[in-house]
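User: My advisor asked me to double-check a structure prediction for AI-2E family transporter before group meeting. I don't want to rely on an old file, so could you generate it fresh from this sequence?
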Amino acid sequence: MNTPQEIDHALEERLSRRLLDTLIRAGLVLTLVLLCYHIFSPFLTMMLWALILAVTIYPLHQMLAAHVGGKQGLASTLIVLLAVVVVITPTVMLGSQFGDSVHDVVKGVRDNTLQVPAPSEKVATWPVVGKRVHAIWSQAHDDLPTLVKSMQPKLGELATKALGIVAGLGGALLMFIFAFIVAGIMMAFGNAGAQAMQAIFERVFGMARGKEFTELSTATVRAVASGVIGIACIQALIIGVSLLIAGVPFAGVLAVVVLVLGVAQLPALLVTLPVIGWIWASGDYATVPAAAYSVLLFVGGMADNVLKPIMLGRGVDAPMPVILIGALGGMATGGILGMFIGATALALGYQIFMRWVDDNPERARQEATGDSPSTAA
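Assistant: Sure, here is a fresh prediction for AI-2E family transporter from the sequence you gave:
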């Protein structure tokens, strides 16, 4: 018969072996997870964009599939081709024209054939920067090569940054093309993908809440996407009409620029403020019309600050401030992609926290016995 000391020693050995086995298995699982992440990380951004595009466009995909006999693959192919025609082709054309314009400007400066018009005298009356802008502008009109030579170090840095921006835009466009193709594949197998995603949520959050959190995540992504794109379109329309009323040249081109800035979550004031400056400097407007157009363009440039709180929280089972804070915080830390991730994560976190608050055992016991908190006290 074993003594108590022998029994304790045997139990300690079994526990040690089990603990060692558990640690080894956990280490192997962690190693496998890190290896998978290392392999998948180059495609992570593209796959997240593809998932966001697929979730956002899936209702349109289903509508299109219903008109082509329920053929999911054909509907996905048509949507991808439409995106190439509507989004990618114009972007490539604009990029090519931009490159040609930059080449012409550089060639004109090098050959001393570029002509800068003389500034208006009203430029010197601008507050704070008027005199300096007028002096630089006048020097560019009188002797552009000397001005370029004096600013050559700064122009070199600016050219380097511009090349980096152009290269970044090219890479982003290529990534967007692949993301749209992957999104088309996801939409073609949308039902299976939705079931797999719901199964993941049910495994993480439980069977009772898995479907609810799946629907919440889907609604949040769609609300942020429609809010961003919808706000950008509305703001571009407001500013475009304002530019037409003011008689500003290239109003359509400027409206398209505002649309692109809105989608990229950049302020439309980057367009409206220079236009306001041009209105006052051109000398073609009287004081009252110039002031009216300036107010109209300034209000149009600030319209997104009013529209975002209205549109971002629609159709989501979470308060609008939660969606807005999540989108803005995610955008500040992770750019446009972070905007979707931040809004979705904060909405899920809010729902989980509120479920935990509502799941109060003490309150449940009081409700079961019919006692109020004041009576129990």
